[in-house]
Design a protein that fits this description.
The structure holds 2 protein chains of 2 kinds. By secondary structure, chain A is of the alpha/beta class. Helices cover 44% and strands 15% of the residues of chain A. Classes of the chains: A alpha/beta, B alpha+beta.
Chain lengths: 433, 169
């Protein structure tokens, strides 16, 4: 009898993430089904997150340790070795256990002939780690494990905060939940969690938020199936309040999947909500979420930038555009962004964001309000984008965003990790009567 | 230590019913040591003689973290089984495939040790799963037999594909 080896599977999954452009989320979903044991799944998750987060550092480190490069011929062994370094340097596993387990994983990978090499490389690293770490720290890319273009963009946009941002991107994010106030109060839910030894914080700034220090399998938390809460970062929980949708209003959530913000809007008021998304594959998950939470919305497939395909011509009094973006503000949650995003993506995303805003603006009723949100921290996608809309539409006016964040043009920016939240941008646009 | 070759599903020899061990001789001791070494190297937590093409009622196991608690069972019998548990099992004869299998939670075992002395004990958890898994081998049964025919066919195809890619590489 044999047991699935989390390290071997993590190496296979990480290799897919790094070399084949598969997202960490998708890779974890595929590979974690092998494990029924929650501890194995947790180890796989920790290895994949730390592996993607620190790839640019330890991939370089490994290249320095190997006489012949491995990544092209043996991408899985290469990934396994990077994970070995990550276990020693980042996850802080005991040296003997990390080395022995990584060597054993070569066999589980079906690559026993790399067992000796794996042992030799990891032991050499341990002998030389101080000098090698110092060399890696001397270069910004390997010190922060961010691609050079992104370091430059962050430094240009947030010169006083660049180092703090890079550090926050490499930290683990807490788990934020939003209580479904139609089902239970925050205090009641906190008491249920406390009864199962799960400690939570109740932040003052957000009435429905709960913060858990450790990340865990949310589907096993009390009340998940009963729709008592949703998983949503604190920064995103401001969207519904800023939109200020009141009962009876017609509201559009223009890029709604997976439906977290739409659900929040529906929990707060009896509105006529159209939840639109262009990706048909993401609609079932959204419907599932609404059903779990006991909410009703008009879920439609369509491109917000092309109203002719789905819009019936009736104006919306409120529009939320949570725009597709670089996700550069949530790198701490999705570290594979550092590996998959390219510098050339940013102008393309900014153009798409402007196109969406321009297409939505005529759908907004006079006197109505549009809230623009991104989980980006780049000026091109945020302040500059909103500046362009205000310049192009004479009936648009920026309204002050009532959050104590960093002023960013007509909007407000939270930087990653501040107040424990994701990097996030909001702007509010009012349409004159 | 020479490593033994492990037969892989769907090799028909895995369907052979094992005969009781009669002689506790030097050859048997050598076989036991080779099976343990093969199991540890695989790496596995249990190995039945059937899997190395020896059709005698013999199995080795070690479910300890440190791999320092080898167990050898000869002509084993389960005298009592209670409860049920589900564990995600894998098998050295079905590499890379893992699936939930339901088995007894607690078992009482009678067997002989490597020198032919009778042993009797009760166990539960992973060791109970492992012993039941290995004893299945001794009667020609594999853990994939517990899966639905559709799932078993998927396993067969996946293994075929694995072998093709392995032979190309």
């Amino acid at each position: 009898m044999s047991q699935a080896n989390p390290r071997a599977l993590a190496a296979q999954a990480l290799s897919r993430i790094v070399h084949d452009g598969v997202s960490l989320r998708a890779a974890f979903a595929t590979f974690s089904t092998t494990f029924s044991d929650a501890r194995d799944r947790a180890l796989l998750s920790a290895l994949l997150h730390a592996g993607a987060r620190w790839w640019l550092r330890f991939d370089t480190a490994l290249t320095g340790l190997l006489e012949h490069p491995l990544h092209e011929r043996e991408p899985q062994v290469h990934a396994l070795l990077v994970l070995g370094l990550v276990q020693l340097e980042i996850l802080g596993l005991p040296e003997y256990a990390a080395v022995a387990a990584t060597v054993e994983a070569t066999r589980a990978l079906g690559k026993p002939k790399f067992a000796n090499l794996t042992n030799a490389i990891l032991r050499r690293w341990l002998r030389e780690r101080e000098a090698r770490n110092a060399a890696l720290d001397a270069d910004a890319t390997t010190r922060s494990a961010h691609p050079r273009w992104l370091i430059k963009s962050i430094a240009a946009d947030w010169p006083d905060h660049a180092d703090a941002i890079l550090a926050a991107n490499n930290a683990q994010a807490p788990l934020w939940l939003r209580v479904n106030s139609r089902r239970i109060t925050r205090e009641e839910l906190a008491a249920k969690f406390a009864a199962t030894d799960i400690e939570v914080e109740l932040p003052e700034a957000l009435a429905q938020a709960l913060v858990l220090g450790q990340s865990l399998d949310v589907t096993r938390l009390p009340g998940y199936a009963d729709g008592w809460f949703s998983v949503q970062d604190g920064a995103a929980q401001f969207a519904a309040g800023l939109l200020d949708a009141r009962s009876g209003m017609r509201v559009l959530d223009a890029c709604a999947a997976p439906g977290g913000k739409a659900a929040h809007i529906l929990e707060g008021a009896e509105v006529d909500l159209v939840a639109l998304d262009r990706d048909p594959q993401r609609l079932p998950r959204m419907l599932e979420n609404f059903a779990r939470l006991g909410l009703r919305a008009d879920v439609r497939e369509g491109d917000a930038g092309d109203p002719s395909t789905w819009w019936d011509g009736r104006h919306f009094e409120r529009i939320l555009l949570d725009a597709p973006c670089s996700a550069s503000g949530i790198i701490r949650r999705q570290p594979d962004i550092k590996l998959h995003r390219r510098a050339s993506d940013i102008p393309a995303l900014a153009a798409q964001q402007a196109r969406l805003l321009d297409a939505l603006w005529p759908m907004l009723a006079p006197g109505g309000r549009l809230v623009y949100a991104t989980c980006s921290l780049l000026v091109a996608e945020n302040a500059a984008c909103i500046g362009g809309v205000l310049a192009r539409h004479a009936d648009a006016a920026g309204r002050r965003v009532p959050l104590g964040w960093h002023a960013a043009g007509a909007g407000m920016q939270n930087l990653p990790g501040e107040a424990g939240m994701d990097g996030f941008f909001y702007a509010i646009l009012d349409k004159s009567n | 230590m020479t490593m033994l070759t492990i037969l892989e599903f769907p090799d028909p020899r895995l369907r052979t019913k094992a005969q009781p061990v009669m002689a506790f001789d030097v050859a048997l001791q050598g076989l036991i040591d080779a099976m343990l070494a093969t199991m540890y190297a695989a790496p596995g937590i249990g190995l039945a003689a059937t899997q190395v093409n020896v059709h005698r009622q013999l199995l080795v196991a070690d479910v300890s973290e440190e791999k320092n608690q080898p167990l050898v069972l000869i002509n084993p019998k389960i005298t009592l089984q209670t409860g049920q548990q589900v564990y995600q099992e894998g098998c050295l004869s079905v590499p890379g495939i893992y699936a939930d299998v339901e088995r007894a939670d607690r078992i009482e075992v009678q067997a002989l040790d490597r020198h032919g002395r009778p042993v009797q004990f009760g166990t539960d958890g992973l060791l109970a799963v492992c012993i039941q898994h290995e004893m299945d081998h001794l009667v020609g049964k594999l853990f994939v037999d517990y899966l639905s025919p559709l799932k078993r066919e998927m396993v067969r195809k996946k293994l075929e594909k694995q072998r093709r890619t392995a032979s190309v590489a």
